[in-house]
Each structure stands twice: as structure tokens, then as C-alpha cells.
Design a protein that fits this description.
Layout: E1 3-4, E2 15-17, H1 30-35, E3 40-43, E4 51-54, H2 58-74, E5 78-83, H3 88-101, E6 106-110, E7 113-115, E8 119-121, H4 130-142, E9 147-151, H5 154-158, E10 167-172, H6 180-183, H7 186-194, E11 200-209, E12 224-227, E13 233-240, E14 245-249, E15 252-256, H8 261-276, H9 282-287, E16 296-300, E17 303-308, H10 313-324, E18 331-335, H11 346-356, E19 359-362, H12 372-379, E20 388-390, H13 394-404, E21 410-414, E22 421-424, E23 427-430, H14 433-443
Parallel strand pairs: 1-2, 2-3, 3-4, 5-9, 5-10, 6-9, 10-11, 11-12, 12-13, 17-21, 18-19, 18-21, 19-20
Antiparallel strand pairs: 6-7, 7-8, 13-14, 14-15, 16-17, 22-23
Length: 444
């Protein structure tokens, strides 16, 4: 593909689209694009040293060009879209693994990157912009992939990043308090998610978690439902262990190495896809692993350290609740909140952490342009217990958390999961929760 929107990625012979974004205007980078080899520019104004086409809206022009020139080529890819506040990554990754294990070539696009038979690259957004999506889908098609499973975020849908892309399956996991700095209300948030289900192909199928209070936004006469309530795929009689989960699905006993009630939902969505495709293999289910940074377990002496991406009130509540059901001696939690993001969830997460854990260390997450002291102060607003300590340096917080472990304890390291960076102001500095943990426990 010879189309580009990032001047730094332009190569000789490319066409550059000058797109106006929220923080940058592509028109400011046209000369750089030409210097890098662009032979044609699509812009909304100006005159340049190469062939220039002036259009009313470059973003719309790009979408029209992609659909006209490339959609037919990728239209027979079977696309599976997953949306919801929590569970998108795990559900997608389970489907990705399962389809590949039964001999179907499936790619994954989402929070932890772009995967073919292995990780190809990291992505800047859960759901990339439309040009990047087309490039990845074309690569999938070129390399003989039949399926693509994709995380679909509410921001991407509301920003039209998926225009001209249509899905064979759309899955709704859940909707909880998140991104209200952007959507303002839960109704707006639900309506943004709902856009995925309007992008189903004519014979497409929606798969809905009927236990979630917002399910009606996504349900139609052609939907399949799942959950503990009466549904097409009914879950019941589950047992949680530290190393596995067992549950019944339509009276079939399912065993998985994933832990937690919420992972029953994630796995059920995966099973439904396999059954719909007539590819279900019960033995495969036992082999599926969680994605990196999602309830990722590290054993330390007679204790367990769990790294998880939980960064919403609902996700934090669920992981601590589920870990508590495995009967550890004590639960220690290390947690922070991201800066320049929805502030309303901070006090809720702080209260949940201290109420549900034996001890909490509040630390930095990705402070961005906010002062870490202000973020932690927000988290402590409604905290009534004194079972906590503030250690802003995340590395020192992790070291202290590990040192507190005694016998049959669990340390929860929440918020960053797979991320290998901390965002401080506008800089990404290398930082990995997992590697920090491994560094310390190998020393001791």
C-alpha cells in the first residue's frame, strides 16, 4: 500500500494524506513527507512541489479511497470484533489461540499488539486508525490468514476509525464505569459501543453477555446470549481454584487454567465462536493461556505474585474478589491510576482496594502531565481504613510488596499488566512490572 498519514513513514513513491487530528495537523508535515519521497499529496488547502489534490475533508477522502481500492481484497476475511469495558483482550486472545490450535490461521489486533503466528509489533491504540487497520488486514490476507479477531474500543467507534470495515461476529463483554472523561455519561458510552453491532455483515451474528445491565443496547432478534441468567449458553456451578476454574456450560463440564469468575465469561464467548464455526474441541480449551499481563502468575517461595491490567473499579473489584475465593493467607495490592484520564474512578478504586485487601501500596501508574501526589490524593479521598502506604516510586513499591510476603500470601500488582513503559509527561520511559518482579525475586 502506497498511502500514508504519518510523514515519518513515507517512502519514495507514496501518497501522503494530510489529516487533521486532535493534537496534530498533517498539513504541518507535508514538506517532511515530500522530503521523504511522497510524490502526491492529498490536502484541504495549500500548494506544494508535488502533485497536489485539494479536497474538502482529507479524512473522508482517505476512507473512500480505502474502501474503493482495497476493501474488496479483504472482504472475505472473517472478522470477529470484541467490545466492552473489561475482557476484550482476554476474549480476543483466547479466540486467537483456539482458532490457531484447531488449524485455522487467525490474527489478533488489540491492546497487546498485532499478532500473526507471533507478535509482529506493538500498537499505539487498542484499535488503531483506519489506515493502519487496512494495512494489517491486507498483510493478513497476503499471508493466507482466514480469521482476524480485533478489540474494538468505544473511542475508535466514536471517532469513525472503523468506517468501511464490517464484521462477521460482534461480541459484547460488559460495560462498567470508564472513559467518562470522554463519553460523559454511561448512555453515551453504551451508544458508542453499540456502533460495532451496526457494522455486522448481512449474515453477521452478535454474541451478548446477558448478565450485564446494559445488554439491551446490543441485543436484537438474531443475537446469541450467554451468562448465568437464562440464555442460549447458560453458565452455572462454578468452582475457583488458585490454578484452575471449573464450570458448567449448558450442562457440559468445562475446565480451564484461567482463574476468576470473569474469565468464565471470557472463555464462554470464545467457546460460542468455536461452536458457531463448528470448530469446537473441548481438549483445546484446557490448553488456552491468558494473554501477557492478564492474571499473569509468578510463584515466589510459598506465595503468588499476580500481574494484571485491572485499571477500572469493576476490574479491581473482580480480581480481588476472585483471588480472595482461593483462600490465601493475606492479599497485598499495589495500585495507582493514570494521569489525564477519568478522575471519577480514582476514589472508587482506592476504596475498593483498601476494603478488599489486607494491605495496599498506592504508587504511580502513568502520571502523564499530572502530579503523582494529586492522583494519589484523589485515590485516598474515601479511604476509611489505615491499611495502606504510599510509595510513589513504582519500583520501590514492588520491592516493598514482595518483601511483605510471608506464607501463602498473594501480591496483586495492578494497572499496567503487559505495558513495558511509564508515561511521565509526554515521555515513555521503559518500565515492566513483570521484569521488575523477576529482577528482585532472582536476587533473593
Amino acid at each position: 500500500m502506497k498511502l500514508q498519514v504519518n510523514s515519518k513513514e513515507v517512502k519514495k513513491g507514496d501518497t501522503f494524506f494530510a489529516i487533521k487530528g486532535n493534537t496534530h495537523d498533517g498539513h504541518d508535515y507535508i514538506n517532511e513527507a515530500i522530503k521523504n519521497g511522497a510524490i502526491k499529496v492529498i490536502a484541504e488547502h495549500g500548494s506544494y512541489s508535488v502533485e497536489t489534490v485539494i479536497v474538502e475533508n482529507t479524512k473522508e477522502c482517505l476512507k473512500e479511497c480505502l474502501e474503493r481500492c482495497y476493501y474488496k481484497y479483504i472482504s472475505d476475511l472473517k472478522l470477529i470484533g470484541v467490545t466492552g469495558t473489561n475482557g476484550k483482550t482476554t476474549t480476543c486472545y483466547l479466540i486467537y489461540q483456539a482458532l490457531n490450535k484447531v488449524g485455522k490461521k487467525c490474527a489478533y489486533i488489540g491492546t497487546i499488539g498485532f499478532y500473526l503466528d507471533k507478535k509482529i509489533k506493538d500498537l499505539n491504540n487498542t484499535t488503531p486508525d483506519i489506515l493502519d487497520i487496512y494495512k494489517m488486514l491486507i498483510e493478513c490476507k497476503d499471508k493466507g490468514y482466514e480469521y482476524v479477531v480485533m478489540e474494538v474500543s468505544s473511542q475508535a467507534l466514536s471517532m469513525n476509525r472503523l468506517d468501511t470495515i464490517y464484521f462477521d461476529y460482534a461480541i459484547f463483554t460488559n460495560l462498567t464505569k470508564e472513559h467518562l472523561d470522554y463519553h460523559k455519561t454511561m448512555r453515551n458510552y453504551a451508544l458508542a459501543k453499540q456502533l460495532l453491532f451496526k457494522k455486522l455483515k448481512p449474515n453477521g451474528l452478535s454474541i451478548i453477555n446477558i448478565d450485564d445491565e446494559y445488554y439491551s443496547y446490543f441485543l436484537d432478534e438474531n443475537s446469541l446470549t450467554y451468562g448465568f441468567e437464562e440464555s442460549d449458553y447458560k453458565i452455572d456451578n462454578y468452582e475457583l481454584f488458585i490454578d484452575k476454574t471449573i464450570f458448567n456450560l449448558n450442562d457440559e463440564l468445562i475446565e480451564t487454567k484461567l482463574i476468576g469468575k470473569y474469565n468464565i465469561y471470557n472463555l464462554t464467548a470464545c467457546i460460542i465462536i468455536l461452536k458457531q464455526l463448528k470448530l469446537y474441541n473441548k481438549d483445546i480449551i484446557k490448553e488456552l493461556n491468558p494473554p501477557v499481563g492478564r492474571v499473569e502468575k509468578i510463584e515466589y517461595k510459598n506465595n503468588l505474585i499476580i500481574i494484571d491490567y485491572a485499571h477500572t473499579p469493576d476490574a479491581v473489584l473482580k480480581i480481588i474478589t476472585n483471588v480472595r475465593k482461593t483462600n490465601p493467607n493475606k492479599i497485598y495490592t499495589i495500585i495507582g491510576c493514570g494521569g489525564n484520564r477519568d478522575k471519577s474512578k480514582r476514589e472508587v478504586m482506592g476504596k475498593i482496594s483498601t476494603e478488599m485487601s489486607d494491605y495496599v501500596i498506592f504508587t504511580n501508574d502513568n502520571p502523564r502531565f499530572e502530579k503523582p501526589d494529586d492522583i494519589i490524593k484523589d485515590m485516598l479521598t474515601n479511604v476509611c481504613k489505615d491499611n495502606y502506604k504510599v510509595i510513589k516510586n513504582r519500583k520501590k513499591a514492588i520491592k516493598k510488596g514482595i518483601q511483605m510476603l510471608n506464607e501463602n500470601d498473594i501480591l496483586l500488582l495492578l494497572g499496567k499488566g503487559h505495558e513495558e513503559y511509564q508515561i511521565i509527561k509526554n515521555k515513555r520511559k521503559y518500565f515492566s512490572d513483570k521484569n521488575t518482579v523477576l529482577k528482585y525475586i532472582r536476587r533473593w
